[in-house]
Design brief:
10-stranded mixed sheet; 241 residues; alpha+beta; 8 helices; Pseudouridine synthase; 24% helix; two-stranded antiparallel sheet; single chain
């Protein structure tokens, strides 16, 4: 029928740019595809880049399956500065000298975070307590008691050490706050630290190399964008929609 609305379906891998929230990406794609049934499988902070797994149409039903996948990140930690958000967007609370650390010392500290553990979510997070997101309470200067969450860190590797910056790769379970890992590493090394930059490189078997930039997706014809949609059975063959 002439003018009939087309419903798209599948998994779209987006390389999220910085200064965009995950919801911003959802909104832009809803406008592009002229459909509301679009979601994502795992939030990235606005300053983070990399793989954002978008679910289009009926693929939204597999949200929980994909959100539970292991995640892989690369990034940079700045030692010597503690911020209230545990990343570079926050206010500097404390500055300390960075000792002369060897790569072996930093790697040993990183390795101590591997395995099963409980992590306390940061105050600047979207977790709701009594219906109020923690970041709203944090902006008022409040410090709310948070329930530690079970996480697993499978890999935490040193990629570069050039004081005061540490480049790393981490692979962890869902729900892990990488900026908290950065903060905690700084505390363990005795000088404090915060997450300077973060890029998600993988979610389960899906990798950022398979993704397309948001800018390119928004510029391409719908017929070309449709070709980028991965079939649900290819991404999650055991899930029947």
């Amino acid at each position: 029928m002439l003018g009939a609305k087309k419903d798209f379906e599948g998994v779209l891998l987006v390389d999220k740019p910085t200064e965009h929230t995950s919801h911003d990406v959802v909104a832009r794609l809803r406008g592009k595809l002229k459909m509301k049934r679009i979601g994502h499988a795992g939030t990235l902070d606005p300053s983070a880049t990399g793989l954002l797994v978008m679910l289009v149409g009926k693929a939204t039903r597999m949200s929980q399956y994909l959100m539970s996948a292991e995640k892989e990140y690369t990034g940079t930690i700045t030692l010597g500065q503690v911020t209230n958000t545990q990343d570079a967007d926050g206010e500097v609370l404390e500055t300390r000298p960075v000792p002369e650390l060897s790569e072996a010392e930093i790697l040993a500290a990183m390795q101590s975070f591997k395995g099963d553990q409980y992590q306390t979510p940061p105050m600047f997070s979207a977790i709701k307590i009594d219906g109020v997101p923690l970041y709203k309470s944090a902006r008022k200067g409040e410090d709310i008691e948070r329930e530690p969450r079970f996480i697993r860190v499978m890999q935490y590797e040193l990629k570069r050490w050039e004081s005061p910056e540490v480049d790393f790769l981490v692979r962890s379970s869902k729900g892990t706050y990488v900026r908290t890992l950065a903060h905690d590493l700084g505390q363990k090394l005795g000088c404090g630290g915060h997450l300077k930059s973060l890029r998600r490189t993988a979610s389960g078997d899906l990798r950022v190399e398979q993704s397309t930039t948001l800018e390119d997706l928004l510029a391409m014809p719908l017929t070309e964008l449709e070709k980028r949609l991965l079939p649900v059975h290819q991404v999650a063959p055991r899930i029947a929609l």
